[in-house]
Write a structure and sequence with these properties.
Strand order of the largest sheet: 3-2-1-8-7-4
Number of strands: 8
Shape: rod-shaped
Largest sheet: 6 strands, antiparallel
Number of helices: 4
Strand content: 15-25%
Mean pLDDT: 87
Helix content: 55-70%
Order of helices and strands: HHEEEHEEEEEH
Oligomer: single chain
Length: 231
């Protein structure tokens, strides 16, 4: 219970999944006696079949270079754990190829525990732990309860990320709208200027027409005077 409270305080206010993964594994491994650990988060996709588990953090595992690798749902124990949403514990059947390495030695773990991270009935990630000792019932009970807290944290971070993305999109749309409004205002001013010029041209045409009409009337008058003179 003390450790659960400690993790709850530690995870409050976290905003980055990678940082959360490293923080969880570095603090969790000594508590449960694990020597290797990996933290996967389910990356959602529009197509459910395209969803992948992405390695976000690791502890004494394949190194930071492996971060970002993805596992399909149902692929290996990690993928199957995400599909079944059930804990998988390997005891006597741990493969010899799985080694816990240090600078001096390589050991085969006695237990490998694959733990689903579930929030509101949906898998949000998977934590895999390996230990040279056995995970006792207290360890497993602690991990089951901790998984719930991790699920809440993952959901909160992803919800905040979606909110920030939507806010960024909204700001981008607002800027684009403002730019369009400025363009429309400029176009409107240009149209007003053209309308003013057109009105001025119309006025000039009317004035010219009046001058032409006056000249025509003067010619008619002169023609009448010429006809009268001729008569």
């Amino acid at each position: 219970k003390t450790n659960l409270a400690k993790f709850s305080r530690m995870l409050q206010g976290q905003k980055d999944l990678v940082a959360v993964g490293h923080l969880i594994l570095s603090e969790l491994a000594p508590v449960v006696g694990a020597q290797q650990a990996e933290f996967y988060v389910l990356r959602q996709a529009p197509d459910v079949a395209s969803a992948r588990l992405r390695l976000m953090a690791s502890y004494a595992s394949q190194g930071h270079g492996a971060h970002g690798k993805e596992i399909e749902l149902g692929q290996g124990l990690v993928g199957q754990c995400a599909v079944d949403r059930k804990k998988i514990l390997l005891t006597s059947s741990v493969p010899e190829s799985l080694r816990i390495a240090s600078g001096l030695a390589q050991l085969t773990p006695l237990n490998v525990l694959v733990l689903p991270i579930v929030f509101e009935g949906r898998v949000r990630g998977v934590v895999e732990l390996a230990s040279v000792e056995r995970f006792n019932p207290t360890h497993q009970a602690f991990l089951d309860q901790l998984a719930e807290s991790i699920g809440i944290v993952i959901n909160t971070i992803e919800a905040n990320m979606r909110t920030e993305d939507l806010l960024t999109q909204s700001q981008s749309l607002a800027q684009e709208l403002q730019s369009r409004q400025q363009e429309l205002q400029q176009t409107n001013e240009e149209l007003q200027e053209k309308a003013r010029l057109l009105a001025h041209q119309n006025h000039e045409v009317e004035r010219k027409n009046q001058e032409v009409e006056q000249a025509r009337q003067a010619l008619e008058e002169k023609a009448k005077q010429l006809a009268l003179t001729s008569k």
